[in-house]
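User: I'm preparing a small set of examples for a lab meeting where we compare how different chains pack in three dimensions. I only have the primary sequence for this one, and I'd like the structure in token form so I can line it up with the others. Please keep the answer compact; I'll paste it straight into my notes.
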Amino acid sequence: TNSITQEQADGLLELKSKNSSKDLSIVPGYEIHINAGKKISPYYGGEALFSISSTKDIAETQWSQEEQIQQTVTKSRQSTLGLNLLSGVDCYITEGLYLGFEFGFGISKELRGVNSTKYDNPEDSTLKDEKTKGNTTKTEWGPNYNGAFRLGWKF
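Assistant: Understood. Below is the structure token output for the 155-residue chain.
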């Protein structure tokens, strides 16, 4: 959250601006481990990606000397689906405790999102609330990797 202060000839008027975002991803997968010894466990597998993200921006603007404030609320929501093939290796430090890494190749599709804008006390009376569906989708494919080491415990 951030605030903006606007100075006027007759004093100060505080205008507010808030930004927030939420992301939720579910990535179920399956690994097939290859028996290569007690200390090392290479594997291959696959995973599916289900992701939803949303943003919300609230902005205020002053539009008259009588300190009239227009509030604009903009929201957007986006979904992504994907599939990844992966391989990796777990190195056991002690019995049950491992350090590992993985990399893979996959495809993902960002679906058309939903955007909405709502005006409260608009300066221009022709401004109407609107809700639109995005007009583009995005497909990406290529290598991917877990950008960190995996630390885990085998039960």
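A couple of notes for your slides: Confidence is low (pLDDT under 50) at residues 1-9. The CA atoms of residues 114 and 133 lie 4 Å apart.

User: Perfect, thanks.
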